[in-house]
Amino acid sequence: MKSGTKSIDLGERRLIAMRDVQDAVTAGATSIVVAANSIVTPSARDFLQQHGIELVTDKSVAGPQQSTQHAASSAGPTALAVNRRLFTTPEAEAVKKEICSVGRKLWMRQFVDGNGGNISYRIGPNEVLCSPTLVSKYDLTPDDIGMTDLGGVQIAGAKPRTSELLLHLEIYKAVPEAKAVVHCHPPHATAYAITGRVPPNLIIPEFEVFVGKVAVSPYETPGTQAFAETVLPYVKTHNTVLLSNHGIVCWADTVTHAEWYAEVLETYCWTLMIASQLGVPISQISEKQGDDLLAIKKKLGLPDIRFDASRMKECQLSDLEVPGSIALEPTPCDGPTSRSATASDGDMESLVKSVTDAVMDAMEK
Ligand SMILES: [Zn+2]
User: Which of left, alpha, beta for 117 (phi over 0: left; psi -120 to 50: alpha)?
Assistant: First the structure.
């Protein structure tokens, strides 16, 4: 006995994603008709295969190009080949779930607002999984996650990628150790970012080990290439950067760890603000104790500008206590790595003077 067949026509859709084929299967389809110029996402294709649903290409509505996205990809700015199969590997499926759970953490902790914030993971030399644009991080599902090449050209996924992916891509290109990037707007850390100030160091061990020195990058319009490049001078020696008048960005070996750094920074900034209301000075740990923490950090393989012996002097100076202040002017130590390795004598003199003045000022009060 032959069971009935039902064909569902999706010929009008340019992009056929997991949800479309799920709906069709729920509606009892035994075959799905698509236009020759439609893009069927790899996960949708796998789903159809697993459910024994035939995928029929209707050549009568064939467009001139098989896939404009693919054409753009091969002509894209990166010469590396793209491995589309990476989008549906067990590792990719696990990372997609991890991105969703990190998205929910960001939303639950109020680190993102509206559709703000974005998350990505470098799954191959030229392949990056990323969150889509215009979706709240609380509502992310694995089907929302797309894949692009290192040039930002989308090669898989139902939804368009976030425009702020450019920022992530600059970090991946500059820092080979960076496998995951999280960008968000946590309120207390963003309060620093909108004042252009950095928190003092040598106060809470966890912050020293996991973040340490936080840099401040200059403002540019979000989503632009100019914005993406603002972090370049900092990301090799800082895993966390305050983005002026915007938010923060963190990179790590995993998506989960990149989100941890956002938590560590946000909690640190918040704690400092609360402590500053107690009306008594915040105590710092000693430089020797700070060195012990740096040794732990080195073992963990985390970056810190203070590992650079030639910059240690200026960094130690910036660690000097400015009593009563929880928001410091960034020093060269929180600044670009492209700057000459050691500050010039003039720079160092003015740095020493400004720190001394601030200390004297606070003592007089
Ligand atoms: Zn943002």
Answer: left
